[in-house]
Amino acid sequence: MAAPGYWRGVALVAAVFLAILLFVPAWFDLFEVLQMTQYVVLALYALSLAYIWGFGGIVSFGQAGFFGLGGYAFAVLSINMGDTTVPFLLTIALCFAFAAVLGYFMFYGRLSDVYLGVVTLVVALIMWKLISHTAGPEYAIGKARLGGFNGIPSIPIMRVPFTDREMDPGEMFQYFMGLLIFVYLLLHVLIRSKFGRIAISIRENEVRTGLLGYDIRRYKLLVFSIGGALGGASGAMWATYQTFIDPNAFSLEMSAKCLIWVMAGGVGTLVGPIVGVVALQYLSLKLGETAFINNLVILGIVLVLLVLLMPRGIVPTLHDWLRKGIALVRQPSRGGAP
Amino acid sequence: MSAAPGSILATSSLTMRFGGVVAVDNVDFSLAPGELRCLIGPNGAGKSTFFKCLTGQLRPSSGSILFDGEEIGGRHTHEIVARGIGIKTQVPNLFEGLSAYENVNLAASRRNRADRAAEIAAEMLELMQIPEIAGEAVGTLAHGQRQLVELAMVLAGRPRLVLLDEPAAGMAGEERARLAGVVRSLAGDNTLIVVEHDMDFIKDIASTVTVFHRGRIFIEGHVEEIMAHSEVQEIYLGKEANAAA
Fold first, then answer.
1. Residue B110: which of A204, A207, A213 has the nearest Cβ?
2. Residue B115 and residue B106: Cα distance in Å, rounded?
């Protein structure tokens, strides 16, 4: 059922990402490479929500719970194991399992969408509260002290897989960008699979999907768990990128930002949230450099304008405009005068 | 009206309460394999709630539902559907963004590989005599066509018991006659329960009718006998109308 242009579009986006992966470290200075690495990590975080929201109809108000859990799990594991590859993989597995357990109670407990959003938010806030109260020396897991509000410093820098060599900033950018491309393509394959089509049908019409004999709880659980694993992976990348993690990773602000990036970029697309992250983070950065007005005020105005002018998000709106533009250009030639 | 031996569906003292309201009240109902039964009754009589209990959309307050000898009361919808019950809901329940073919294909995909599902989807649209709208988005279709697409979806799952909730609503003339023909052709190989208000349609498709009133089975019998029954007329039309007649 895939439209012929679908995979062409995906391939085009992947090619652009690949070009960015190849040329950014050579063409940009260190500060810009570090800045773009941050965008890549946050883009993966946004993808974790974009997938479950746009392609499973699950709105998580507490996606930061997985982001923070991933960050802390990676910090503890990498400090204790003295490696980064295995801890990274274990972190993803742990976050998948945590999402599966949480999701089991939510979906098999027949929670409605609103309560589901509230539960995810509350779980993230409980984790934030818990981790904030771990300041004493007794709160340590092996060699890793949790540090309460001060967080965990000196988290190992990502190493080249299965070696002891730390990545330099350019290599880390390329590694993370490669992961982002891999996840982007993987999610598209998943979305176009039978599993993905049924997950979308649940989003579209949960009652009818159930009446066709599909176990909607099982599908939602798997979609949510995949989102949890991706959120955890981005948290781990954030921790190694900063070599530091603190309770703010679990904060309401981190959850809210994720919702805003996805909403601004366009729910129901995968490239949209990536665009949303880059556009809004870049705007925040530039507004932070100006002193004439509070940047949060301007950011708020931009978001309101986005919702009013592009209610479906940046990417779907631009896509529509482009399609209409092409149709307008073609129309006169089709019915052209002899 | 206890469960007859060999019945494909038998409910016993089935009750569904919403707080103080008893929507389905101690219903004993049974159906023989291959039978086509019509359920009638005024709005609020409990027909749709009865269907929701049968399909697991509602967990009955008490009583039992035996389908092919197995208790299904309180089971999840997907488990019941997997055992062979399919339902066409009162308001067509479709995937609006998909085409008619894609809707039916999705229904057929649950039990079949992609190539077989495609064949079944095409077959079902043919059976409904609507292959010409296969590629059209269901959101753009007329109400009657949407009803037929949903029926095609239900049948694509190859259910043994088909529940049709007001399938002829919004249809007229040729379209309704075509639907009556389809429903009649299904009986025998399939067991059907049809909830309907349209008496002409009922006369076209069924011989046995069950009348629901205030959550209970009021009377069961042959369609002509039921239609001539003064109390049934009273239930449907009200005392004043009956007196005037």
1. A213
2. 12
Question: Can you list the alpha helix ranges (DSSP code H) found in A290-313?
Answer: 295-309
- Which among B90, B106, B109, B111 is the top mutation candidate for probing chain A, defined by the most A β-carbons within 10 Å of its own β-carbon? B106
The interface residues of chain B toward chain A in range 8-37, judged by CB-CB distance below 8 A, are none
**Residue in the structure block whose two tokens are 């073919």:** B101
Alpha-carbon span A211 to A205, nearest angstrom:
10
Of A179, A177, A159, A181, residue with least CA distance to A168: A159
CB atoms within 10 A of CB B13: 12
The ipTM assigned to this model is 0.84
Domain boundary assignment for chain B: 92-158
Interchain CB contact of A3 with B (< 8 Å)? no
pLDDT averaged over 10-residue windows placed end to end, chain A, 338 residues: 75 94 91 95 97 94 97 97 94 98 93 89 96 93 94 95 92 96 97 92 91 94 98 98 96 93 93 94 82 73 87 91 87 52
Which residue shows structure tokens 């590989």?
A: B113
Task: Look up residue B219 and give its two tokens.
Answer: 């009377």
Q: B159 to chain A: which residues are within 8 Å by CB?
A: none
Contact B194, B206 (CB under 8 A): yes
Nearest CA in chain A to B150: A208
- Map out the domains of chain A as residue ranges: 20-251
